[in-house]
Amino acid sequence: MKALKSLLISGREVLPLIEGGKGVAVSTCKTAGAWAAENAVGTISGVLPDVVDENGEVIPMNIKSKTRRERFEEQIRHSIEGIVSQAKIAHEIASGKGRIHINVLWEQGGAQQIITEALAGAKGLIDGVTCGAGMPYKLAEIASSFKTFYYPIVSSGRAFKALWARAYKSYADFLGGVVFEDPWKAGGHIGLSNSDDPNVPQNPYERIVELRRSMASVGLENTPIIIAGGVWYLREFQDFIDNPEIGPTAFQFGTRPLLTRESPVAKTWQKALLALKKSEIALQRFSPTGFMSSAIKNRFLTDLFDRSATAMPYKDEPEGNFQIPLTVGANKVYITAADQERANGYIGAGRTVPQRTNDGQIVFITPKDQETIQKNRANCLGCISHCLFSGFCQTAENLSTGKTPDPRYFCISDTLCKAAHGAPAEDELIFVGDNATRFSTDPLFKDGYLPTVKEFIARLLTGD
């Protein structure tokens, strides 16, 4: 194992080890502070983070507003307060060591306001902002205005070129690094482009070399590339360390530190991870963000696959082969005779509620699903800027896409918040990377042992 050398990250020489920002309330002040205390980089998730009081007690999000606009604004205020409160605690735990970053999804509802006001409210406590799930053009301007380093997440040199040409070239001084995320290995939302085949993984080395060439062509040959997605044992990345073709590198760990003692994941979640099998992780497009994502194929995700499989075309009036009437809500639609048998089968199996999708089809759901969908849509708080599930649109005057919300998707804030606060792991969305099946064979977690972050980082430095 090659020895890791300290690297200048966000203005300080630290270990080139970075905690990945994980979803809703999973990368917290406790995890981030513990990573920083080991002279590494800790990350607080800025995606609907819990507010933490002066005693370290969690105050979960409790949206009380009645209108969609008010709920959207309340969600933004909660996120800002959560980041600021957690940054203070992480800073105390770090005791002047390491670096503290925040991770924000660019497609999060109110992302620009959240980043701006969080950096203002936590001035001097946040050293860097990592941002992905979209093309964060304005990130450079916002972070630089606070003299804070920024770290875009990309999956190709082509994506970085677009960011640089449109915005980053004007704010190069605070570009702290570029996160390369392997879209076939990463957990959560991933950056597969339309030209990428989800079933044919590409060699990350080649894509990272392409990224470095793109960066070097604009004078960024010494700006770190942070390798993310599929990083488990550093001994497997020997070819990426001290390699002149790649240049300065750091490594980001998302899935593996889910099972440290500082991590807040619930007992049921821990148990699921320790027993996970390869067939139980799925790449799918059910996220209402429109991005593909990687998650555990549990009861929650299986139901979405089953729901999507019921899809069939319909017409509003009899036309051609579409002659069989079917009641959908208060109206009749028309399906083909060939699909009538399918429809009867779904209804007989308990999927008695046909629902329109936004692409001219209907799917069949259960009355319980319908109740959950109606409740979640009524309580929509605009957690993402453009939602396929609720029809929320941040940029529209009436906050609506004007399109039929699609029942094949789900309320992402509802399920992620439940998962983070102890709901059964089978019933909620659990994001993981492709390597999550390695928990069961990793000696670090033998017999269900949970290491501290200190132990975890010490093990990383050995290559294991």
Can you tell me about this structure?
Helix content is 30%, strand content 18%. It starts with 6 loop residues before the first strand and ends with a helix. Strand 14 (281-284) and strand 15 form a beta hairpin. It has helices spanning 29-37, 68-94, 111-121, 139-145, 157-166, 204-216, 267-274, 299-309, 337-348, 367-378, 412-420, 453-460; strands at 7-9, 12-14, 17-19, 41-45, 51-52, 58-59, 99-105, 128-132, 149-154, 178-181, 188-189, 225-228, 249-253, 281-284, 293-296, 312-313, 322-328, 331-336, 353-356, 361-365. It has 464 residues and is of the alpha/beta class. The protein is globular. The protein has 12 helices and 20 strands. It has 2 domains: 7-265 and 441-460, Aldolase class I (TIM Barrel, Alpha-Beta Barrel), CATH 3.20.20; 299-427, no CATH class. Helix 2 packs parallel to helix 3. The chain has an 8-stranded parallel beta sheet. A 3-stranded antiparallel beta sheet has the order 11-15-14, with no helix packed on it. It has a 3-stranded antiparallel beta sheet with strand order 16-20-19.
